[in-house]
């Protein structure tokens, strides 16, 4: 996907995976250092989640959408505010300074 | 004027007089739905509808007639209340139940309410009606005084009571050498005792107002050095140019008198507890009414009468007028004066405590019952911070504590011992202007009003004179606590601190990063609440580049990309155009850039130009061009100074009195780097026509003949708030000094995302407190505030310029880390010759077409 040094500590960047936009978050404090979720905010209807703020709520890692501030869980993709809303997530691996995302 | 009387079958209710009490009466009627039962007409003699006479003097310090107005007529119109200004009622035919108007018309009534108020008493000495003699009651009186004051140098007030001293303050503000002549042996003889009057006299003389007590004026004749000479009974005399009579009021009862209603021996229309006169279809309320042999010359009892009369008309016989407390606290010529209950210690057997400090000129007296258990009265001169607590003991007949004298003694930590609001009975009156009790507030809180602002809205408490605002906050907080509503002031789950606490921790401990703050004082890893708040505080205090590695994760998307995200994920760009002044060349650059990138272009409300539709990678490219042309970031994305709106001022405008343009640019350049709890907007107007709308801004500046008037904490937008007049006739240097202090004090103490208007509403002590902090340096903070601001000014950098020079920061603006293309979901269509984001439906259509 990219080099580890392309990631921004404590924030997200966007990447393209098989024609789909994804957001990569680098969270050094978390056990799983890097998370990959869909870049599409289904409520705001725009590709913006990589530009949201990381929020650690009750020990869960989430991103707050920059548009209307809903939280999405980085691990599961679950929206905390809307039960029926869930976004796609991908397994990520950090190896020898490179970032790998598993295609589905 | 012809008044149509045939429009209705409903009984006719006519109100004569549209002062504060007459207006309050109409409000009461409307609140109780009286407009459905009655056809209501209001007659006012003055050209204006009701205005705030209590704050009349502010007409001289920058407020316009519209600012003092209690209604613009909309309330009346909306409820079908007809009103007639400039309309004097000259006679009542009680037998025929009809009114005669000065215009010759007559008008039938079923119920009549007289709210004719009072008129100023002018002692009938020879010469009292010479030119350049005035009274102080209406806006027209003030206009005449102002006109005269422009021509002359010396002014004298006859009367040293409450209104007389208020008038003296006004003359002083108009720049006149001012004297006060009082017949009684002391100032404010009604409210103060001898020592209190003496202390006040010394304080006022210290302000260059000369005071003559025990002085009787015998005649006014032509002066030798001035327009008038006033000859006194003791053979001395005073030369002065302007004389203002303020020797008390007399009830305006002429109409009642000639129609044969019962009148008191010394004037006033006799009323009972329902405010009914001797004719049971005529009521009288306010200063024209005589109840139990007393005239009430304050607004609060007038309001109570209005309530009682309205209730009686609507068939509610329980809300009777039962007299009123005449305790008062005020600031006269900057001196605190308070008087409660039996200030003169006339109660049989009463005992007195006195405290006097000649060094700081303060005097306090408590009058207590013979057994020492109840407070009967008090006098305060020099420091009114003791007033609220004493008043509550007095009004609610609460048993005094042991060592009751501590209530007027300075406490060791500087603050007087306050009465816990828990100790107040439910019936305790919190707001006397609107007659709101502790129980009313408790009811409002139980019904869901969970903030001071909400409670104000529901009960009107603290919206009259505002003197009870601090007490109201305590009662509301106490009620919330009692209800078990957790009043958590923690900023979020990661920090058990308020924003103000965090500010102080960061500043005092020299904390430079979020990680350090979290490690020392927080828990967890932060969230979208605390991160931007701390990011903002760090920027306010240290003013580092916000995109530094350790700060970037704290920034909201707008701050992170130094632009404003729009609904489709593209950004808008707003370069700074200080004061809205821009050269044609720069305007052409903006036009060219917008054209080259196909950006939607719009003029903002803050006199700038907003370019919409830029993608992430375009932002640095566009800024490269803008910075090269001399533009700086406009920080439209930040919680920081947005714009300083301005008119062209005296440079071009034939009405301008000062260079508002120059001042606006100076202020915008000074404060442009400040990150604050929320966005800040300024405006500077070149004259009182106020074309820049400064009174709706966080900081508003209006040019005057004498310098600048400074307004603070206004707001437009969702919840408009008229800015408060903070200081008048400032020179350039003082203006900037005060703004430095106000802004830094706000930055230091406000909650996150709290605009100055809301901050002011919640500030304990309100405007007066802010003045004490900023002007009198009560907290000893001013030097620190100025230094903090100077640091921000000295370390300003254009964030876009810095970003363009930083390779690492520029990487941030790639759309994708591994792909050069753009976001396929960003689609524009054309409208009115410019782009706009396509709607979802339009996107579907475009996809279908392409497919």
From TrEMBL, chain A:
Record CDD domains: Rieske_NirD
InterPro entries associated with the record: NirD, Rieske-like_NirD, Rieske_2Fe-2S_sf
SUPFAM superfamilies: ISP domain
One Gene Ontology term from the biological process aspect of the record: nitrate assimilation
UniProt-listed PROSITE patterns: NIRD
Leader peptide range in chain numbering: none
TM region(s), chain numbering: none
Protein name: Assimilatory nitrite reductase (NAD(P)H) small subunit
Source organism per UniProt: Marinomonas aquiplantarum
UniProtKB/TrEMBL annotation, chain B:
Pathway of action: Nitrogen metabolism; nitrate reduction (assimilation)
Pfam families: Fer2_BFD, NIR_SIR, NIR_SIR_ferr, Pyr_redox_2, Rubredoxin_C
Gene3D superfamilies on file: 3.30.390.30, BFD-like [2Fe-2S]-binding domain, FAD/NAD(P)-binding domain, Sulfite Reductase Hemoprotein, domain 1
Chain ranges of the Nitrite/Sulfite reductase ferredoxin-like domain: 566-628
Residues the entry annotates as binding [4Fe-4S] cluster: 647, 653, 687, 691
Cofactor note: Binds 1 [4Fe-4S] cluster per subunit. Binds 1 siroheme per subunit.
UniProt KW keywords: 2Fe-2S, 4Fe-4S, FAD, Flavoprotein, Heme, Iron, Iron-sulfur, Metal-binding, Nitrate assimilation, Oxidoreductase
Entry-linked InterPro entries: BFD-like_2Fe2S-bd_dom, BFD-like_2Fe2S-bd_dom_sf, FAD/NAD-bd_sf, FAD/NAD-binding_dom, FAD/NAD-linked_Rdtase_dimer_sf, NasD-like, NiRdtase/SiRdtase_haem-b_fer, Nit/Sulf_reduc_fer-like_dom_sf
The BFD-like [2Fe-2S]-binding domain, residue ranges: 430-476
Cofactor: FAD; [4Fe-4S] cluster; siroheme; [2Fe-2S] cluster
Residue span(s) of domain NADH-rubredoxin oxidoreductase C-terminal: 327-390
Nitrite/sulphite reductase 4Fe-4S domain span: 638-777
One Gene Ontology biological process: nitrate assimilation
Binding positions (siroheme): 691
Superkingdom as given in the UniProt entry: Bacteria
GO molecular function: 2 iron, 2 sulfur cluster binding; 4 iron, 4 sulfur cluster binding; flavin adenine dinucleotide binding; heme binding; metal ion binding; NADP binding; nitrite reductase activity
Location of the FAD/NAD(P)-binding domain: 12-300
Family from the record: Belongs to the nitrite and sulfite reductase 4Fe-4S domain family.
Protein known as: Assimilatory nitrite reductase (NAD(P)H) large subunit
Taxonomic lineage of the native organism: Bacteria, Pseudomonadati, Pseudomonadota, Gammaproteobacteria, Oceanospirillales
